[in-house]
TrEMBL record:
InterPro entries the record matches: A/G_AdeGlyc_MutY, DNA_glycosylase, Endonuclease-III-like_CS2, Endonuclease3_FeS-loop_motif, Endouclease-III_FeS-bd_BS, HhH-GPD_domain, HhH_base_excis_C, HhH_motif
Organism of provenance: Paralysiella testudinis
Record-given protein name: Adenine DNA glycosylase
Cofactor(s) essential for the protein: [4Fe-4S] cluster
Gene3D superfamilies: Helix-hairpin-Helix base-excision DNA repair enzymes (C-terminal), Hypothetical protein, domain 2, Nucleoside Triphosphate Pyrophosphohydrolase
A molecular function GO annotation: purine-specific mismatch base pair DNA N-glycosylase activity
EC class (word): hydrolase
This protein's UniProt keywords: 4Fe-4S, DNA damage, DNA repair, Glycosidase, Hydrolase, Iron, Iron-sulfur, Metal-binding
Domain spans labelled HhH-GPD: 42-195
Keyword Acetylation assigned: no
UniProt GO BP: base-excision repair; mismatch repair
Pfam families: HHH, HhH-GPD, NUDIX_4
Length: 352
DNA sequence: AAGCCGGGGCA
DNA sequence: TGCCCAGGCTT
């Protein structure tokens, strides 16, 4: 049981702190639920600094939910290029169509209804409900978990449902009573975690909770929240078959919606030289036609891709089976309209 | 409950 | 290099 006084003081202190020291000029701090929703999706597992780069371009291209719903998926994915977790973009697009079709083009205002939208879970739904509609719903993201684990000295297995449920219950017990405070309160949770109660080197001297923070009292700030068990990083070889026409056009195909880089456009991609050979044979080519580029290391959260480009500058054989395949020649000038995996975009920029 | 999904910031 | 970030979906 957390100390009662700490629970009582949490919200008013946080709100006062946010108003004085929090962030107030982020471009998505608007009344428009569409803008709030877009920012929340972009900010999933992505830092503010990164989103600041993408959000304005996306809003300019799709200023409202109707525009987004009507766009082709590739237009959405190309604007998402480089942000990662591309299922977010696919779900975002789908959710826009849900809002238009199921909610008459108006965002729903309650958390349960918001959770029906693709890509919107409990925390994101709560954020939209709180920011755009003043609903008394609590978020629980990485920042909030860290703040709560410290202020209330919560020591548990971050992967366990039981511990997660405890944190949800704690978060809800802390909500301010007044709807009018929900925006500042919710923003305060995020701001405190991001700028003061940081993962490493937290600025406890600047923290409004310093005198009641149980982790601080117990001298356990550095050990809470407890780290998750480390995930093994698998090293995976990958070969890119870069087929380039004399005019510079590249052979690309749209990747399946599921799996890595889902829905993005990419050069053919195989895990072994044997499979590269098989693929090439169907296009009337073989490994001897390919020149090997330098290997690119691309690290994801849980895997390390070792990508070796195999490049062929060739004139397409008249009867090559490649023209029967699921893919197309893409002119250099048109590449910007195609969402590409980050390392491929970087590689293509490098070889021009 | 566990696995999957990108890319980047930071120490 | 390891860890984590305004998480959610699938199995």
């Amino acid at each position: 049981m957390p100390p009662k006084t700490t629970v009582q003081q949490f919200a008013p202190r946080l709100i006062a702190w946010q108003q004085q020291h929090g962030r107030h000029h982020l471009p998505w701090q608007v009344a428009d639920p569409y803008g709030v929703w877009l920012s929340e999706i972009m900010l999933q597992q992505t830092q503010v600094a990164t989103v600041l780069d993408y959000y304005p371009r996306f809003m300019a291209a799709f200023p409202n939910v109707q525009a987004l719903a009507a766009a082709p998926q590739d237009a959405v994915l190309s604007l998402w290029q480089g942000l990662g977790y591309y299922s977010r973009a696919r779900n975002l697009h789908k959710a826009a169509q849900q809002v238009v079709a199921d909610f008459n083009g108006e965002f729903p205002c309650t958390r349960p209804q918001l959770e029906r939208l693709s890509g919107v879970g409990r925390s994101t739904a709560a954020a939209i409900a709180a920011f755009a509609f003043g609903q008394r719903e609590s978020i629980l993201d990485g920042n909030v978990k860290r703040v709560l684990c410290r202020v209330f000295a919560q020591d548990g297995d971050a992967n366990s449902k039981a511990f997660n449920d405890t944190l949800w219950a704690l978060a809800e017990s802390l909500l301010p009573p007044a709807a009018a405070d929900m925006a500042a309160y919710t923003q305060g949770l995020m701001d405190l975690g991001a700028t003061v109660c940081k993962r490493s080197k937290p600025l406890c001297n600047a923290c409004p909770m310093a005198d009641v923070c149980q982790a601080r009292v117990q001298n356990r700030v550095a050990e809470l929240p407890r780290k998750k068990a480390a995930v093994a990083v698998a090293v995976l070889p990958l070969y890119w078959l870069v087929l380039r026409r004399a005019d510079g056009a590249l052979w690309l195909h749209k990747r399946p919606q599921k799996g890595i880089w889902g829905g993005l456009w990419c050069v053919p991609c195989v895990p072994s030289l044997a499979q590269a050979e098989q693929w090439l044979a169907k296009a009337g080519l073989n490994l001897a036609d390919m020149s090997e580029g330098h290997t690119i290391s691309h690290r994801l959260t849980h895997r390390l891709l070792q990508i070796t480009p195999l490049v062929c500058d060739f004139r397409l054989p008249e009867n090559s089976a490649i023209i029967e395949r699921d893919g197309e020649w893409v002119a250099k000038a048109d590449l910007a309209a195609y969402g590409l995996p980050k390392p491929l975009a970087a590689y293509l920029a490098e070889i021009r």
